[in-house]
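WARN no homologs supplied; continuing
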Amino acid sequence: MQRKEDVIRRNRKTKIVATLGPASATPEMIKALFLAGVDVFRLNFSHGKHEGHGEKLAIIRALEQETGRPIGIIADLQGPKLRIGTFKNGSVTLEKGARIRLDLDETPGDETRVCLPHPEVMAALDKGADVLLDDGKVHLRVVERTNDHLVAEVIAGHKLSDHKGFNIPNVVLPLSALTEKDREDLAYALSIGVDFVALSFVQRPEDVIEARHLIGDKASIIIKLEKPSAIECLDELISLTDAVMVARGDLGVEIPPEAVPGVQKRIITMARAAGKPVIVATQMLESMISAPTPTRAEASDVANAVFDGTDAVMLSAESASGEYPLEAVSIMDRILIRVEGDELYRTTLDAHHPRLLSTAADAISSAARQVAETIDAVAIATYTENGSTTLRAARERPPVPILALSPKPEIARRVVLSYGVHCHIVESFHSLDAMVENACKIAFRDGLADVGERIVITAGVPFGTPGSTNLLRIAWVE
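OK structure emitted
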């Protein structure tokens, strides 16, 4: 066997998702970001045109061919964007205790009134409802309602300008998570072959069911948890989706900031228990939009997400439009490596293993981790047709890499988001011996194992039967 000298192998198990944008649109920068540590790229459909997203996807697919490494791509849909109208002078100064009328009149407003161009939202608000504008910088409370307008009192904040967004905490709004724009964007994203679709503004299980009907098995679904109503039905939402994103931006506006860390830990714990990959996102290295290094608090924030056991952490504007996209990826990579090397990390991660279902697949996946630890195996190889074998292995958070072998490129790209997974696209196997031999060759070639070391292999037999993990084997690398 011959070892591959230029193999792309991460020295960590937690993955990095990076958003592409004006600062990271060229083939040279996308390649540099990948080599620096990006595992999955995010296309933000809130910005840019279809052609631009298609060009970035083509660059990534070409890079995939060049490096021989599967790369995941997320299409992040915008979702409903709730915004107020305009003001005569572009902005107003509000006084605490003053009252302002919210109506459907599109005429530019002033300190006494402004357009709220969402009749369905207007109908859902009762007296006492809170309205948070400009990411919570302005806080209004409804004190009066009629058939065509609301009157709100200014509770906090004073500066408000045109088209600022607003949030309505603790109210389930009668809006679909998919707007007409989202449906057009979704159709395009699926046509160019994205691997994941991220749904914004998820409030209820019906939102995921609606998206699943449109997406089918063409891509995995990621639900962005940014609404309090979604947290209230978290169990059901996680059961319906393929992956989860802790979208702390809007979530931090709609629930008290002090509640966000606990909610983050709860989501990670529940997603891991269900074997669904989870991403922690928003404001992770925010200061690096304009600074070459992060704050100590940001480094600690990223580290805490890793200690919590997340599958992935995400960069947004830092890599999309910031001044230091490559530096942001590099420092995030270094933080992840440092945390995973800390003696407390493995102790914390092993303190809780998800409860197993009474299935052969769960038993095999749990046993693979235990066997690997007992015999000092250097990797766990999983042969998977639909990703389920690899996801079960990742749920166990083993201390060794997971070598995922799949004959389907789309499956290899999807499981790359999961904890500890090192992916390869392989030919279909028709015998166990051929599969074991191939796993050993790839493990050696990619530097996961040396001659004389052992790997643990799991698969479903007979081959080609999705979700039938029922085999565990120990193999020597020769």
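The first helix runs from residue 27 to 36.
OK
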